[in-house]
Design brief:
alpha/beta; four-stranded mixed beta sheet; 4 helices; 15% strand; globular
């Protein structure tokens, strides 16, 4: 993981992406990189390297189609921990931005196809929300 630090975003509208990039510009950070719907079957490494721009996710019938998911995701690649905390705090204060799933690209996840990482992140969020909503859990007593 020796490429320049970057923020990768999934499923942001043009308006949302524009607001995100304006916020990043205010702090002197480069704009976020879009993960295109046609890159769903590519590994994060390939997406970061800019390889295979025309990759597509396979439908259950074996045909190829763009990945379709409205989940918003922001991935932190090679951003130091302090930078991640600064960005998270900045994003929390910005009312005009969506509340995505945040994740770090790790040595392990960099070789995952994006669609598998997305599925895993959604499952993980669902488990955490269920645990937080269980009676007696997440309550300070």
């Amino acid at each position: 993981m020796d490429k320049e630090p970057r923020l990768l975003c999934w499923s942001y509208s043009r308006e949302e992406k524009s607001r995100l990039d304006a916020l990043l510009k205010e702090i002197g950070a480069p704009p976020a990189h879009d993960i295109e719907k046609t890159q769903g079957c590519l590994t994060l490494r390939s997406i970061i390297d800019g390889v295979g721009e025309a990759g597509k996710a396979a439908d259950p019938d074996g045909s190829l189609a763009p990945l379709d998911s409205d989940e918003k995701v922001l991935l932190f690649y090679n951003i130091p921990q302090k930078g991640v905390f600064i960005l998270l705090n900045l994003f929390k204060k910005e009312a005009g931005l969506p509340r995505p799933i945040y994740a770090m690209v790790t040595e392990h996840s960099i070789d995952w196809p994006f669609h598998q990482l997305l599925e895993h992140l959604v499952e993980e969020r669902t488990r955490m929300e269920s645990a937080a909503g269980a009676p007696g859990e997440g309550q300070g007593s």
